[in-house]
Amino acid sequence: VQIQLQLQTEPEPESEPEDVCRKGAESDAAAAADDGSAPDHELKVQMCSTDNLEKICTLHASTGPVCFFRPWKLAPGWFPLGHMAQAGLQVPVQSVLAASSPGHDEDLMPPVAYDKVFEDPETGCSVWKPIAPAGYVAVGQIVCANSERPTADDVVCVRERFTEPGDLGAKAWTNEAGDGTVLWGLQPQSRAGRAVGSFWGSSGYSAKPTEDVFVLAVDGCDDDGSSMAPPHSRLTPMSPTAMMLANVLKQDAALRRVRSSQLPRSSFDATAGLRRAITTKQTIPSVMLEKPELRKTE
Asked: Cα separations (Å) of 251 from 247, 262, 289, 290?
C-alpha cells in the first residue's frame, strides 16, 4: 500500500543563511509550544519481521555480506521509521518498527530531503540519510536498490518529543575496499529509549561520527496498535512454532556432538522427523513432542 502524506509547504528562502535562520526560528517556536511537558497521547508502534519485511538488496565486503529489508504490507496509516540491515544471507531474524499516530498526523512527517551516504558502484545499491523538518528527527536510515533518490513516502521522521538520545552500537557492515563507509547499529543511551531496529551509516572507517542520533522514547510509545494493522502484521519477536523449531535444532546439534554409537538411532530419527514436520507445517504427532530417551550403551 502506497502512502502519501500531505504537507503544508512554505515559500522557499532566497538564500541558504535565511533558510538556516527560518529553521532555527521554527525550532524555537516548536519548543515553546511543547512547553517541556509530555505529550497527551502516545505514538503507536508495531514490530515488522519475517513476513512483513521485503528484501531490498545485498552489499558485500571482506567482512561478509549484509542484506537490507524494509517494512511492507503495512495497513493504511502506518509508516516505516527506517530500514533494517542484517549481516549474512539468511532469512531475517531481526525486526524493525513502523509507527502510526491516528488523529495526530503532525507527529510523523516525511523528510524534506535526503543525503546520500553510500552507493555501491557494482550493484547501484545506495544508502540514504533522511533530513528531518525542524522539530523532527530521523530515527533510522533507508536503502534503495538503485542510485535513484528515495521518495517522500519511503520513511517518516518523528516529532522530537517522542524521541530520546541514542548511541551507535556494533558495526553492521564496513566498506573496507572503498570509501570506508560504516553502518552502525542504533541503540538507546538509557532505559528511557527504544531502538527502532534500523541503522546509521557514516564514512570514515572505524571512527564513529559525532552527530547526534535518536531512538524512540519508551514513555511515548504504545505497542497496543496491532488492531490498526492487518493480521499478518501482528507479530511477536518469535512465534511459538519458530521457538519450537529453534529448540529442536539446538537439541539436534547437542545430540550430534555425542558419538552416534552411544545413542539409539531412534533419537536422531525422532528429532529429524519433528524438524521436518515443523518446517513443512505438518501436524506434529504427540509422540514426537515427547523428549527422546537417551540411553548410553556400554
From this structure: 6, 16, 13, 13
pLDDT exceeding 90 applies to what percent of the chain? 42
The amino acid present at 197, given as its one-letter code, is G
CA neighbor of 47 nearest in space, from 4, 88, 92, 5:
92
CA 157 – CA 110 distance, rounded (Å): 6
Read off the pLDDT of residues 189-243 as tens digits, 9 standing for 90 and up. 999 999 999 999 987 665 677 889 999 999 888 884 443 333 332 333 344 555 5
- Residue 42 to residues 35, 91, 103, 227, 273, Cα–Cα distance (Å): 17, 32, 11, 15, 46
Q: Which single residue is written with the C-alpha cell 539436534?
A: 252
In angstroms, the CA 160 to CA 139 distance is 10
pTM surpassing 0.70? no
Torsion of CA 162, 26, 133, 190, to 10 degrees: -30
Q: How far is Cα 58 from Cα 18, in angstroms, rounded to an integer?
A: 41
- Measured CA distances, 143 to 95, 139, 153, 281 (Å): 16, 14, 13, 33
Q: Which residues pair with 215 in a beta bridge?
A: 164
Q: What is the C-alpha separation between 53 and 74, in angstroms, rounded?
A: 10
